[in-house]
Design a protein that fits this description.
Residues 27-117 form the Rhodanese domain. InterPro entries: GlpE_sulfurtransferase, Rhodanese-like_dom, Rhodanese-like_dom_sf. This is Rhodanese-like domain-containing protein. The protein is of the alpha/beta class and 130 residues long. Helix content is 33%, strand content 19%. The protein has a single domain (3-126), classed as Rhodanese-like domain (Oxidized Rhodanese, domain 1, 3-Layer(aba) Sandwich). Residues 122-130 have low confidence and may be disordered.
């Protein structure tokens, strides 16, 4: 694969936070944003605003919640996390149209884009106390 093929393939499989925000504002009915991060709820309490929360480890059981007629945008923690890539591959194998949000929630928060914080809704006994 030459450099041009690599970059074209990368652009085909990913979307930047800025591009996603612009596209979703223009055509919200075309996209389904999905937080696929695994881990305890208290560490996942901040999500991208209006994202569906379906952890990667629950995808098999929750496929019925994911629309086939929209482009699915998956995200995880950051550029170092491969959970979104695993989720994207799983969904692509099942016929979904999928892109990964580059940089995950870290890049989204760094750009001060809208988030939802559910930490107040988590019961104190659910916290690990770390």
């Amino acid at each position: 694969m030459n450099a041009l093929d690599y970059f074209n393939t990368r652009l085909e499989a990913t979307i930047s936070p800025m591009d996603y925000l612009r596209c979703a504002e223009a055509n919200p009915e075309e996209y389904f944003l999905m937080d696929v991060r695994n881990g305890p709820e208290h560490v996942r309490s901040v999500t991208i605003k209006d994202a569906a929360v379906i952890p990667q480890q629950e995808l098999q059981e929750r496929l019925h919640e994911i629309p086939k007629d929209k482009e699915i945008i998956v995200y995880c923690w950051d550029v170092w996390c491969n959970t979104a890539a695993k989720a994207a591959a799983f969904l692509l194998e099942r016929g979904y149209k999928v892109k990964e949000l580059t940089g995950g929630i870290s890049a989204w928060k760094e750009m001060n884009f809208p988030v939802s914080d559910f930490s107040a809704k988590i019961h104190p006994s659910d916290r690990c106390g770390c």
